Amino acid sequence: MIGQLIKLVLGLGVLAAIGLSIYAYVGDLAPDPRQESLTVILDAG
After folding, report:
1. Which of 15, 19, 24, 36 has the fewest CB atoms within 10 Å, counting from its CB?
2. 19 in any annotated domain
3. How far, in Å, CA of 7 to CA of 18, rounded?
4. What's the rounded Cα separation, in Å, for the pair 19 and 23?
5. Which residues span the domain enclosing 7?
6. Residue 36 DSSP label
7. 32 inside domain
């Protein structure tokens, strides 16, 4: 019983590592680059 539980946990760990590596290669969530300009008004007085 304990041996099966250890195999299950190890199997899930292997699947999680595979899923994480696939996500790292495929899942690029970087935002699209774009120009932004903001007007800043400084109060010198």
Report:
1. 36
2. yes
3. 16
4. 6
5. 1-27
6. -
7. no
For tokens 């790292």, name the residue: 24
pLDDT tens for each residue of 12-34 = 999 999 999 988 888 777 778 99
Q: Is the pTM of this model over 0.85?
A: no
* pLDDT band at residue 44 under the 50/70/90 scheme: confident
Establish if 39 belongs to a structural domain.
no
Query: Does any domain span residue 43?
Result: no
d(CA 17, CA 9): 12
Total number of domains constituting the chain: 1
User: What is d(CA 12, CA 18) in angstroms, rounded to the nearest whole number?
Assistant: 10
